[in-house]
Amino acid sequence: MEGKTHAIGGICLGIATQSYYITQSMDAPETIVYYGACLLGSLLPDICHPGSWTGRRARVLSKGISRFFGHRTITHSILFILLIYWLTSTFSFQYDDLIQTGLLVGIVSHLLLDAMTVRGIQLFYPITIRVRFPMYMKTASKAEGIVSSILVVSALFLIYKQLFA
């Protein structure tokens, strides 16, 4: 999937998570931190691709990960989710729970979306089995545009439901 689809997916799943999982209301700074973390998490797994949005901003790290692991391997796996969980649990700082939740939500949305592509993901890395949904699409195809549109409509519906239900 393209970066814009991942960004939309991260925000959409973030809204759904806030609606059904985060029980306390958030003030403006908390909302910004949470959705910023969702957005960053939705783009973070592509650090393994030097041409991606994340890869271009962390070029040295991205090239190292790409050379050592390849694309859609470790950063698209349960192992990566556990690593980010551990890293965000190690430090204590303001908004740490919101940052951790947002990052993990964004990463999960990224993995779900990439599992919808022809190439799939190595969810159980280092086991080399590729995982993908039975119905899949090519990146940057019309089908991806439809998925992006569905995510936008879903996000708007969830926001409406939060505000007026």
Automatic annotation (TrEMBL):
Keywords annotated in UniProt: Membrane, Transmembrane, Transmembrane helix
Transmembrane spans: 69-87, 99-125, 146-164
InterPro entries: YdjM (IPR016956), YdjM-like (IPR007404)
Pfam families reported for this sequence: YdjM (PF04307)
PANTHER family found in the cross-reference section: INNER MEMBRANE PROTEIN YBCI-RELATED
Protein name: Inner membrane protein
